[in-house]
Specification:
CATH superfamily of the largest domain: Ribosomal protein L10, N-terminal RNA-binding domain
Radius of gyration: 33 Å
Number of helices: 7
CATH topology of the largest domain: Alpha-Beta Plaits
Strand content: 15-25%
Largest sheet: 5 strands, antiparallel
Order of helices and strands: HEHEHEHEEHHH
Number of domains: 2
CATH architecture of the largest domain: 2-Layer Sandwich
Number of strands: 5
CATH class of the largest domain: Alpha Beta
Helix content: 55-70%
Strand order of the largest sheet: 2-3-1-4-5
Structural class: alpha+beta
Shape: elongated
Length: 186
């Protein structure tokens, strides 16, 4: 029979897995308490970094419908539960791991899909959501401007041609009669 404190821990972890966009598993062996505190601060407000028990976390992940992480629950494990932008959290983990080689990124899950450690590093190389949205908006605006210029080009060309014809008629009209005037004179 499961003890009530373990059942409560599993329920809490299950809720965290269900409510987060991503979960990134790390091994923290060799890090001091001060370094873990620094890591928690660097993750920001949209991520919660928790040192977890492997068996309880494995049970919670399976209850949340995530069975792809089972192989990663070995050794001292901590999980970053991300509720905001996963790119920002992946960058924080990557940067912290560069400065502290004892932190090892094991893998994770993003929107229900398993991520390897290399995929999390690739995720960290992406630009933030805001920058990517700005680039998409800029691309759309450029396409719209190009389309507007394309639609306006025939009209502009017509106006230029008509203006050139008008100027030619005005130059030729001073000494040479216009064709309509020549027919009336005959």
């Amino acid at each position: 029979m499961a003890r009530p404190d373990k059942a409560a821990a599993v329920a809490e972890l299950t809720d965290k897995f269900r409510s987060s966009n991503a979960a990134m598993l790390t091994e923290y062996r060799g890090l001091t308490v001060a370094q873990l505190k620094t890591l928690r601060r660097s993750l920001g407000e949209n991520a919660q970094y928790a040192v977890v028990k492997n068996t309880l976390t494995k049970i919670a992940a399976n209850e949340a419908g995530i069975s792809t992480l089972d192989d990663l629950f070995a050794g001292p494990t901590a999980v970053a539960f991300v509720t905001g932008d996963p790119v920002e959290s992946a960058k924080s983990l990557r940067d912290f791991a560069k400065d502290n080689p004892n932190l090892i990124i094991k893998g994770g899950v993003l929107d229900g899909k398993a991520l390897s450690a290399d995929e999390i590093k690739k995720l960290a190389d992406l630009e933030s959501r805001e920058v990517l949205l700005a680039k998409v908006a800029g691309g759309i605006k450029a396409s719209m401007a190009k389309a507007a210029a394309t639609f306006q080009a025939p009209l502009t060309e017509f106006v230029r041609t008509a203006d050139a014809l008008r100027a030619k008629v005005e130059q030729g009209g001073a000494g040479t009669p216009a064709p309509a005037e020549a027919e009336v004179a005959e």
